[in-house]
Automatic annotation (TrEMBL):
Source species: Saccharomonospora azurea NA-128
Keyword field contains Membrane: yes
Keyword annotations from UniProtKB, A to Z: Membrane, Transmembrane, Transmembrane helix
Phylogenetic lineage: Bacteria, Bacillati, Actinomycetota, Actinomycetes, Pseudonocardiales
Stored Pfam families: DUF3159
Segments passing through the bilayer: 41-65, 77-95, 115-136, 157-177, 189-209
Record's protein name: DUF3159 domain-containing protein
Length: 232
């Protein structure tokens, strides 16, 4: 079967098994997303627990990150969404007067993501398959491959676990009102956790595929007994 993440692996018929990191992108985006929360905490500390200072620092860093992303070819829409997320977080904190509420949108988004990925597995439309189907230009052709659907479902549970870990940690720190710890957690649970999720889910994905499967880029139409196995 495949190595961790499927890197440099091949099935017996010669089909290369690509890593999820190469298909979905590396840690760059997750690292960028962790910078504004860190800037918020630094500004908050330097300003003597001032939410205004923290918000200003987060927005400034977010703008710089956005410019850098634009210069390296990122889509303007994605950059604007990231900037808007920081603006919303800053406005929430300023409105409630609680610095920890800057991290509330991130907490809630992880709750929503955990639920969405879980539901997708239950209804047999695992989001990992949906995302990779889009990336590989397959649309929904992968749905005709029973083995691939089942493998995507099982690998998607790793992504559910990622969001659950974040919800547990962010939730506990938010309830405790620890701004600094939340900013540190945002870094630790950003690209390191994303990278680990890519590697582990890639390993699970290829481990669940038959040895003679042609690979993610070549879904096949076939049925297997025990359709309930698709639920992962």
């Amino acid at each position: 079967m495949g190595h961790a993440g499927g890197v440099n692996d091949a099935s017996p018929n010669g089909a290369r098994r690509e890593s999820l990191a190469s298909l979905l992108g590396g840690r760059k985006g997750a690292l960028d997303a962790s910078l504004p929360p860190v800037a918020f905490a630094v500004g908050w500390l330097v300003g003597g627990s001032s939410i205004g200072w923290g918000a200003a620092a987060a927005l400034a860093v977010s703008l710089v990150v956005g410019v850098v992303r634009m210069t390296r070819g990122d889509r303007p829409g994605a950059v604007l969404v990231s900037l808007a997320a920081v603006v919303v977080a800053a406005l929430i904190a300023l409105y409630t007067g609680r610095a920890v509420d800057f991290f509330l949108p991130q907490l809630l988004s992880n709750v929503a993501s955990a639920l969405a990925w879980t539901i997708s597995i239950v209804i047999r439309w695992p989001l990992l398959g949906v995302v990779l189907g889009f990336v590989l230009g397959q649309r929904t052709r992968w749905r005709s491959d029973t083995a691939l659907v089942r493998a995507y479902a099982r690998a998607s549970w790793v992504w559910v676990a990622q969001y659950v870990v974040r919800v547990a940690v962010f939730g506990a720190l938010w309830a405790a009102g620890d701004v600094v710890a939340l900013s540190v957690a945002r870094v630790v649970l950003s690209w390191p956790l994303v990278l680990a999720t890519l590697v582990v889910s890639g390993w699970v994905l290829y481990r669940c595929l038959p040895d003679d499967h042609p690979g993610l880029r070549h879904p096949t139409e076939h049925a297997e007994s025990g359709a309930s196995d698709e639920r992962g």
